[in-house]
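Intended use. Records like the one below are meant for learning the mapping from a protein sequence to its folded structure. Do not use them to infer anything beyond what is encoded.
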Amino acid sequence: MNQLRLRVAIASRWRISPANCGDVFAAPNQRCQSMTDNTTADTDNEQQRLADLAEIGDVDLSQFVPGTFGCHEAMHTASLMLDMTDDHLLQHPAILADPEFYRLAGNVHEALFALYQAIGEKHLAD
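Structure written out for the chain above:
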């Protein structure tokens, strides 16, 4: 993935403006500025989703709808990543030592939990 595409992907997934997204390792006050226009962020996110969908090629998406093994696999992957985030990231000494790292890792954990719940709600619905 080239650097420009990576910035756009990061920007759309984290709802920040790619134009303001410089060095992700910069000081917090020099990092990307938050977007105020959620419509633009949602549009960018949808465009990125469609581009990613096009990249996977000829896949039968009916095998991944809620209730299928493919959807269960996504839910299981979210669960594994949630556990890994909790066990290996949030408990890592470098993360625990830095309040900003811990806050960001906590945001990742919350997002993965929300994803797991959202998939489970649709996948396990009667």
